[in-house]
Amino acid sequence: MTTSSTGRHAGPDDADVTPSAPSGGPPPVTLTGSAASRLGDVLFRRLATGSGMLVTVVIALIAAFLLISAAPSLADNEANFFTYSGDWIVDGGVLKFGIPKLLYATLLVSAIALLIAMPIALGISVFLTEYAPKRLIAPVTYLVDLLAAVPSIVYGLWGILVLGPAMVPVNKWLVNNLGFLPFFREPKDNVTNMSTGGTLLTAGIVLAVMILPIITAVTREVFIQTPVAHREAALALGATKWEVVRTAVLPFGFSGYISGSMLGLGRALGETMALYLIISNSGPIDFNLMESGETFATKIANNAAEFDSPAKTGAFISAGLALFVLTFIVNAAARAIVGRRQA
Amino acid sequence: MTTVETPGLDGAPTRKGSSFKPLAGSRKAVDLAAHILVVVAVIIALIPLVWLLLTLVWHGIEPILNPDWWLSSARYGGAANAIVGTLVQTLLATVISVPLGILVAIYLVEYSDGTSLLARATTFMVDILSGVPSIVAALFVYAVWRTTLGLPRMGFLVAVALVLLMMPLVVRSTEEMLKIVPQDLREASYALGVPKWKTIVRIVLPTALSGIVTGVMLAVARVMGESAPVLILVGSTKAMNWNPFAGNQESLPLMMVQQYGQGQGAFDKVWGAALTLVILVAIVYIGAKVVATVFAPKKS
Predict the structure, then answer these.
(1) What sections of the protein cross the membrane (chain B) (predicted)?
(2) Which partner from A72, A212, B12, B94 sits 20 to 30 angstroms from B210, CA to CA?
(3) Domain segments of chain B: what residues?
């Protein structure tokens, strides 16, 4: 935040700068003119400040309204919201719902996505800052940015109709040859996802593609700022290019890389439409990537048609509230890491 | 790292005739391996992009080459109603979020000193808002409009949800642009006796305009394809509806979901809608690049 210190500019609206009327008495025209300007300044300042406050108010409103809408359903919930992992029962008079399954699937697909995207993003960032010939930097940056420009629903469509079927033989091979690992067991009862490829693994890969640009952008930004002196010191000691990266660039940019990854994680946790198309069946809580599963976001999207009574809607809004809290924590943590770095 | 015999800055092997010893084999191998890995990472990242774009064009080109696709509503086999809905909702969201976002950025850069509680809270909350998942933004609008006020679904609600997603993007990019406006310009204006608000409106904003417009267009491209809000905030329809304040209103993401639900037979329409959506996003995206390059202030 080097520039923010210069953010405040002493302007004519500051009381000490505003020229006070000389005792001789200024011409009335100037007086009315400056009074009008001061009114304009006050109004404009209030408008801008009010808009600034609005952002905080909106966040508070989001939390408040989700809480108010979810509270009655949470109060009527006969199961424990945090431990009940059975089916969601929101029809009729009895409410029974809980988030462990949603939390599990959400975290699992996000973890797969991070596991795939983080090393690749690191590679791209190092390539762009250290290895790429000058004329390649702009096109590669542009292409990676393009990944972020494709709407998420299009990724979902591609994931279920193109990548999923392409993954079917891969999944079969994994089940047959690595089935002894907990991640690649034959799915228990839900076999349709094995034939369409709509598995947690496919979902994780698609998510990885979607969060790659954000991690890359943040990481690259930090790597570029590596002090030239660090780099030159390493070079002066006879370091190879890779040794420069390992001893100067990576230690300097590591926290930025982690916070970029957490921003990506925040995106992955809340991603709705891609996963809505790829995984939609509820799956068991185990670490089998060949299963399907429901995340917070897909659970809500799947049941949008059922928002017909406040009690039912409240149950889904409570899931949304849990997701909001989760992304809030992750994003705040990511910013905290960045903030500590710059301090 | 005990030897100091490399002469070249780029880690290149020793020049002929130099008295330096060449690089040790293992260090050279690791360096080469790292180089290869890094290039492989770039290639891996580009595979899905190329694959996605090729399949998109392959499956989607046929329906959209038919003029009816662009001209008639879904009732007559086209997608015009969905295109209109997407554009109306995005435009509405833009009209609301751009002035708000710019004002917030003006507050942060021109009025706050960056250390006051409100300034720090606002910066933090803009970050949090940019991390709010689209489905949560949609649920919020739903909770206010439907659960609390009991009013009907409409396209306007989608626009409101999009405002929540778009505003932080506008604030961020505008803030960056305002920060790089030279301080001298402001001071020159003050020296001439121009009040601060006029300085901001007449001097600061126009100087940063091309950057702000670019940022806004990128934000538009980002929210245009947001699809979670349409699922719960508006109903689908096959008829043309220009009015976001009454009745159901189709949009391209909603059309994709609806048609996908129809099964195999409708998949060409789904791909067509997807390609149309990507084309619309691409137009805005390219527009942003054009604004950024053509109208950028000249750098000395």
Answers:
(1) 36-61, 81-109, 121-145, 151-171, 203-224, 270-296
(2) A212
(3) 66-295
